[in-house]
Amino acid sequence: MLEVAWVGVDVGKAHHWVVAADPQGRVVLSRKVANDQQEIARVVAEVGKLAGRLVWTVDLTTAEAALLLAVLFSGGQTVRYLSGRAVNQAAASYRGEGKTDARDAHVIADQARMRRDLPVLRPGEDLVAELRLLTSQRADVVGDRTRTLNRLRQHLTAVCPALERVAEPASQGGWLVLLARYQRPAAIRRAGVRRLSALLAAQGVRAGTAQQLAEAAVAAARTQSLRLAGEEVAAELVAALAQQATDLGVRIATLDREIAKRFGRHRLAKVICSMPGFGFRLGAELLVAIGDLDQVDSADQLAAYAGLAPVANDSGKRTGRRRRPVRYNRALRRAMYLAALVAIRCDPAARAYYQRKRAEGKRPIQATICLARRRTNVLWALLRDDRTWQPEPPVKPHHEPQAA
User: Fold this and answer.
1) Which of 1, 5, 146, 400 is 20 to 30 Å from the Cα of 293, by its Cα?
2) Does 44 map to a domain?
3) Per-residue pLDDT averaged across 322-345, rounded?
4) In sequence order, what are the residues at sequence separation of 6 or more whose Cβ sits closer than 8 angstroms to the Cβ of residue 122?
5) CATH number of the domain residue 111 falls in
6) Cα–Cα distance, 5 to 291 (Å, whole number)
């Protein structure tokens, strides 16, 4: 029996490929395993007979690997992570050009054998796992709504270009209510401002906004008296898309409530939301992106993980230049960047720092990234100490010397 074996797993949706390598890098097991609990447990037991200690390495941590990771964690196995990008880059240095699941799994196992910098995965919290699913679903629904609104505007142009120019369905929900009922210029003119405003008010649109939208719609309809080719079909599509966008908006609101409810139960929710710029949505994205907070050892490590710490880009006589790292967490960078944008508007200290960087000649995006990097230090200290953000640093109590 081997003292230690490195096991690489090329994760797939229907099946995985498992390769075990000995300390010299020789393959001692190579097998295709169905993504099934009993099959995974069987191969874990089989590999366990080959060595006293196993080090597992996977190339994915997404839903495809959920069952695999659950089985490994339940068995007390050590699991490391090697990104798919790193696997592809490393595969180029191995013999042969073919790409198979078995070859990728062998590359993963061999890289895990040689490298000591691969992060160790740990069982995730149920709350963070739920937030990961909800935030991912929300992003998909928001994308669907954006595509729906874009198609709506395109079809509305085929009905009345003037109405498409004044309509703002993305920012004003009253337009979706109106377009679900009226789309053609002739129908809008016949309805008139009074009937349209009454329709909007009955659907919960404020009286002033309803009157404004009705007047804008009627004014746009009066500029066009010609009937366009395919107007009837385009109008039907606009009505259907308006209703679809409304339903997606309701779905987004429901997901927001679910995210807020679960995020509020996390032990660090108050700490994160106390910092200007973070609400429940960005806070949830932050927790999902970081994952296991115990793996973050310093503010510099958190900044590097977020892609906010530039790396050296020297070559020949060119020294001192920096560039954005290639390997970083895009979701974490997005959360930190958006939170910095919000902080510029609501936090005087953040706004002053941003303006100082702009005065130094940095462009808006660069200045915002500098602010996000600065805030990373503060955020990590808050998470480390489990305390809420304060506008001013806490004053240490002054102890009077005791009399002799």
Assistant:
1) 5
2) yes
3) 88
4) 73, 292, 294, 295
5) 3.30.420.10
6) 27
Q: Per residue in 306-315, pLDDT tens?
A: 989 876 676 7
Q: Is residue 76 part of a domain?
A: yes
**With 0-12 CB in 10 A as exposed, 13-18 as middle and 19+ as buried, what is 325?**
middle
DSSP state of 323: E
> So what's the pLDDT on residue 309?
83
- Quick: pLDDT tens for 134-158: 999 999 999 999 999 999 999 999 9
Q: For the packed helices 280-290 and 126-157, what is the interaxial angle rounded to 10 degrees?
A: 120
Domain end call among 66, 93, 123: 123
- Residue 170 in tokens: 């993305």
Which residue range is the domain that position 241 belongs to? 131-260
| Share above pLDDT 90 across residues of the chain, in percent, rounded to a whole number | 77
Separation between Cα atoms, residue 19 and residue 56, nearest integer Å: 10
Mean pLDDT of 258-286: 94
Q: How many domains does the chain have?
A: 3
d(CA 143, CA 141) in angstroms, rounded, equals: 5
